[in-house]
Amino acid sequence: MAADRTIDLDRLSVLLDAYGADHSRWPEGERAAARALIEASDAARTLYEEAGALDDALARASAIEPSPELKAEILAAVGQPRESWVQALWPFGAAWKPASALAAAVVLGMIAGVVLPNPFGGADDPFESEIGELAMSTVFEQEGEQ
Amino acid sequence: MPSQIATLTAYNPVRAIVPGMAGNEARAADAELMRRVAAGDAAACRFLVDRELPAIVAFAYRMLASRSDAEDVGQECFLRLWKVSHKWRPDARVRTWLHRVAHNLCIDRIRGRKPADPIDTMDLAADEPGPSGALQQTQVALLIDKAVAGLPERQRLAVALVHFQEFSNIEAAKIMDVSVDALESLLARGRRALRGSLEDLRVDLLGEP
User: Fold this and answer.
1) pTM score
2) Which one of A116, A125, A128, B161 counts the least CB within 10 Å of its CB?
């Protein structure tokens, strides 16, 4: 805990502006000094009373209570099965839709690989063979030099 | 923190109470409670709902100025709590965790609202008929609710956490993920704005001319 320190009227004003007149809300390290200043200074006491008036007003805000139906619904949800890993991956509804799309994409990819010509040329493409040989020879040469 | 404390906390949260560590006993109690929740203990769940739901709904109401939205947020918070119960971290506080989740849910809802939605069309607590004095109190309460609801989002959050939910400045700053100085600044601006907007209610609130 920070040690109590002396505070001036400006700092007290900031404290009261922020936390109001309830001592328990003030930072622990400044409580004693703030109370001492309020006891010693008329100006400090005026600021303190103004802050207290706003606290009193805020205390008159509506207080709402959760309905019994809400409590019942929350308690009824206890122990419901946890979501499966499939639901965690696809939380948007039935998982068969994305699974079907994925399977269809795999099948189409395999068919395309067998039926369609290789757009980058085949193994008998002299240009590709040359590029491959050049690349590998560089590697082997570098390794051989070390 | 010494590593030994972390080890003890992980293995035996109930007994790992270290004197002088603020909130450690409460964290251990929460960890034990969540262990029972994860095991499906109905009494523990009911205890937790009774203890925390009113605060969460009140907080969400302060942020959203709508009872139905506040109850929706309260329900969603607890559904998420049930889901994480089996992997609860013993160094966490249930109340802080719930407020953090509620905070995120409230921000999502506020940002999802149409900009043209005026605050006074929201269902601020119903104006129930009753004795004349009670009606006066209800009206004053609604005006204060409206003044709080009219604060900018971050100021409203700071005021709600510290003045209505009774969090310490350190806890509130942690929930908001800001420094204590930043929280103090938000609180001060929020309270000054409230003082200004409630000035017209001085007679009703304070009995002053």
Assistant:
1) 0.69
2) A116
